[in-house]
Amino acid sequence: MSILAQKNTKVLVQGITGTQASFHVKRSMDYGTNIVAGVTPGKGGMLHLGVPVFNTVKDAVAQTNASASIMFVPAHAVKSAVVEASEAGLNLVVCISDKVPVRDMLEVRNILKNNQTHFIGPNTPGLITPNEARLGIFPENIHTPGNIGVVSRSSTLTYEAVLEIRRAGLGQSTVVGLGDDIIIGMNFVDILSAFMADEQTKAIVMIGQLDGTFEELAAQWYRNCCGKKPVICFIAGHSQVFNTTVGYAGDIITHGKITSEEKKKILSDAGIIVVEQINHIHQELQKLQL
Amino acid sequence: MNVHEYQAKQLLNYNGIKIPKGKIAYTANEARQVAKIVNAKGPWILKAQIQSGARNSGHFLEPKAGTQGGIRQVKSLKDLWKEAESMLGSTLVTKQTTPQGKLVSRLYVETYVKVNFTFYAGMAIDRVNSVITLLLANTKDDDINTIANSATDQILRLPLDPVNGPTHAQTNRAMDFLKLQQRNYDRFYAFLRGMFKTFMQNDALMIEINPAGVMKNGDIIALDAKITLDERALFRHPEHEKLKDDYETGPRELKAAKYDFTYHEFDGSIGCIVNGEGMAMAMCDMIKNRGGNIACWLNVKGGVDRDKIAAGIKIIVTNPRVEGIVINIIGGFVRCDLIADGIIDAAAEVGMNIPLVVRFEGTNRDEAKNILRQAQLPLMLAHNTDDAVNKILQSIQENE
Predict the structure, then answer these.
(1) Residue A160, phi then psi, degrees to nearest 5
(2) Contact with chain B for residue A183, Cβ under 8 A
(3) Is residue A249, in this structure, part of any structural domain at all?
(4) Nearest to B130 among A100, A106, A153 (CB)
(5) B208 catalytic residue (yes or no)
(6) Per residue in B240-294, pLDDT tens?
(7) Does A109 share its domain with A150?
(8) Do B286 and A99 make contact, defined as CB atoms within 8 angstroms?
(9) Chain B residue closest to A125 (CA)?
(10) Whole-complex ipTM
(11) Of the CATH numbers 1.10.287.1770, 3.30.420.60, 3.40.50.261, 3.20.20.140, which one belongs to the domain with range B249-399?
(12) What DSSP string runs through A168-220?
């Protein structure tokens, strides 16, 4: 198996008729992703890229039984698109859209609190299960099936991590981009626990970020989790201090200023293998002798 | 996006938060004129409007600006004119700016307000819990800088309901925590509501009132204020467009922003073009680990086309620090072939007389490489990030 999406996962695309969406959805189809429908309000009834387009997610689900969505809608429409997706009972939403206002994301999180919909993103390259399903914008030609799970908060570094796995002569079970916005849906703990439970996955590569404390939470969780698999982690940013915020509130929220050294220490104290440079990942993978 | 103190205060005042009377001035003469309107007799406070904290403990680079910081109290109009004249056009350096400092182009002339008691009030986003959190601290003994770093137990954190904001129960708890008198309840409640309303109404990411003061009559007043707005939400706030201060952004940053790029400058010699901020940081780390240093990075995002990328390269070339450029693109959303076209356009226009290393991976990689090979430009192709970093460091060394 793999996690979240497989060959038989029925996928619909919200905002399918946009230029970028069309470009990437076509490629996902060529890759073998089971895309069954599109949704664009006002364009219901037409065929686009060979699949039927519906006005609402609810109609699309009723007609096609789709259980997952790739979201390409404009930033200002994300909130209402999420409401639609969750009301239609979708199990998984992958939101590619970027520049979604933080206030909207706070509301989205509030809406999804009591809801079964798993939300990934926004501003993510999406997720890919090699040779089975591509729910996003990954450069698919760098991926091969295998037993390494990838979870990342950075988009380009996700690709770099995948290339490192290839360099080690291995492939991926599933690659998940969490997105690097201030408010995101699923986080490291959600995806790590799915990988721990997945038979195919033997080890995990995790790409963290200096901002926020999701990595610290993951470390805490990993320390106490059962069925532990090796996790290799990279966090960029030790060479520069990116002081882009004004005031003290941000540091107070995170209980003090976060430095990459402290963050790395918390992770390695929890038993996670931390690499200093992204191009060291393949060596650590080889050491695992999977 | 940050706004100036006086703008932040106006946004807060719109929602009922009391602020000292003040006016903005661009020249010393203007400062003298508005001072009379603000307060007939003084004293006044002159406040340098740069988007940075710790202005009071900062210093000016120019001798004519004197030894005091960016916030000065004056008692006579004559002194006011003199101090305004010395600060305007000078460069203020604080703990939160770069050593180069920031140019002071406007002053806020404010009436001096006496308060009995001050506290810190902040609202910011708690990413992990996805909520707006109210932060309060008593600043009688220590300033917030000290408290934030070493005494985090002296800060009250209250997660706010995204719809209703601060509740009465939370207000009561906050009153106890700050040891405010019960007779201040209504004013304190209105103060917290006003902050929350300002936060929601403007799509803020952070509001800080530091300090807030309690006056003798029990009024609560914002003596200083900082607001960070969410740039992602600018589309529903056309009124925020005029709050932008181009002086706060460097000329190349400004230009890059026009093309929807993010651009940052440092003090090294290598210019980087990447897609993705994580990649930019990883490159910085790698270059530094090998003894090099970065001059700037430009992050091209999703919807980039041929013209935009050419413009991006031109921005980097105009940075005098740049001795070599490395372009490292792993195309997902970004298409490598478009980047290749842009490189050719830029080279044709500005001529490439410094080393250029290009690495392509992902979407349309092979097409892109072919385009560059056919154009026969004096550049080096790299096959991964490692290789790209090594090649640029090597060729810069050879050039020296």
Answers:
(1) -60, -40
(2) yes
(3) yes
(4) A106
(5) yes
(6) 988 888 777 778 888 888 888 888 888 889 999 998 888 888 888 889 888 888 9
(7) no
(8) no
(9) B332
(10) 0.89
(11) 3.40.50.261
(12) TT--EEEEEE---SSS-SS-HHHHHHHHHH-SS--EEEEEE-SSSSHHHHHHH
